[in-house]
Specification:
alpha/beta; 2 domains; 9 helices; globular; disordered C terminus; binds adenosine-5'-diphosphate; AAA+_ATPase; nucleotide-binding; P-loop_NTPase; ATP hydrolysis activity
């Protein structure tokens, strides 16, 4: 598979009144086309900084990000992002259908409408197009945000803790929805989460980050096959072993950082 994303020796230092803050340092990895890669790391380790650099929202102070071999130096048009906070990412005054059509403004109206309807159907919201976001539950609003990203047909879908604000049952449903649509549409996904179980359940690979400044401590293949099931997969030996490994790596990473602080 061709490489979709390459992050090479990425580093970012934020300037500050109390001194510069090194958020990410020497971070390198690649994502192949069609892969779903999860990035897991402790809170504050630099995950959002990494995503912002990939999305071209900040210029990293060191290293490079390349999408299909082209260096990112602005917001790439081939990218879509789904954030945790669905209530702030949808326009409340627009209908669901118009929200999903919004990024497709360059297309003819009929094509725009057809693509939005198709995307809404793929997330099980074919009846909700005329509603407004405020009339939908949190889980349904996040489905709309996912449909909007999918309708755009991005080369790379970035997801920043996308299921962290919904209840546990809805979270399971949305995870399975993501697995289904990425398989149907062959989407490349980079998903950031602090939830170890979620990273193993969803990923083809899990990248484990150290505490701030973030770098990759492990790049683990997830040998669970394509057909995943919330009960059976999570109870399988492979899942339990991998989850323990990620947890140990995260704990180890924290210990190293704590030791430095002492
Ligand atoms: P995460 O997403 O893993 O929680 P972030 O990338 O948001 O981590 O932050 C990494 C570190 O960089 C944190 O210590 C945070 O306080 C710091 N940081 C994030 N954004 C800024 C900023 N704009 N200015 C200064 N420091 C920042």
């Amino acid at each position: 598979m061709p490489t979709m994303l390459e992050v090479a020796d990425l580093g970012h230092t934020y300037p500050g009144k109390d001194g510069a803050h090194n958020a990410v340092d020497g971070l390198s990895f690649t994502v192949d086309a069609g892969e779903l890669v999860c990035v897991v790391g402790p809170s504050g380790c630099g995950k959002s900084t990494l995503l912002r650099a990939i999305a071209g929202l900040i210029t990293p102070t060191r290293g490079t990000v390349s999408l299909r071999g082209t260096r990112v130096d602005g917001v790439p048009s081939e990218l879509a992002v789904v954030f945790q906070d669905y209530s702030r990412s949808l326009f409340p005054w627009l209908t669901v259908q118009r929200n999903v059509e919004f990024p497709l403004r360059g297309l003819p109206r009929s094509q725009r409408a057809a693509r939005a309807r198709e995307a809404l159907a793929s997330v099980g919201l074919d009846q909700a197009g005329r509603k407004h976001p405020g009339q939908l539950s949190g889980g349904m609003q996040q489905r709309v945000a996912i449909a909007r990203a999918l309708a755009y047909r991005p080369s790379l879908l970035l997801m920043d803790e996308p299921f962290a604000s919904v209840d546990a049952q809805t979270r399971f449903e949305l995870e399975d929805l993501l697995l289904r649509v990425r398989r149907e549409q062959d989407t490349t996904v980079l998903l950031v989460t602090h939830d170890i179980d979620e990273s193993v359940y969803l990923g083809d690979r899990v990248l484990v980050l150290t505490k701030s400044p973030a770098s990759v401590v492990a790049d683990l293949p997830v040998d669970l096959g394509d057909a995943r099931d919330q009960i059976k997969t999570r109870a399988s030996e492979t899942f339990v072993d991998l989850r323990a490994k990620v947890a140990e790596l995260l704990r180890g990473a924290s210990h190293i950082e704590d030791a430095k602080l002492i």
